[in-house]
Here is the input.
Amino acid sequence: MAYRNWLTAGAMCAIAFIAAAGGYFYSEKPTSADSRAMILPADPAPLVVVTKGGDRSFSIEVADTAAEREAGLMYRQDMADNHGMLFVFEVQQ
Here is the structure.
């Protein structure tokens, strides 16, 4: 009888561990494998480009970590004409 209780307790611990691990791994930020677009916060200061036709103002998302650059604009269905993303790298290449 005591052996059977140990088996039940062991099985319950294993199920709890699997549920906790699943909750941890599925609660992370979206990545490129999630098939969802990663939306970064837009920089509060607009990027202003001076052209012959006048100034153009853009709201910009900045991808400056490896994970943000990897996901980038993947899975974006559309983007406003005055919106963009800058990819910041540590080394110029």
Remarks:
- The mean pLDDT is 75.
- The first strand starts at residue 47 and ends at 51.
- Helices lie at 2-26, 66-71.
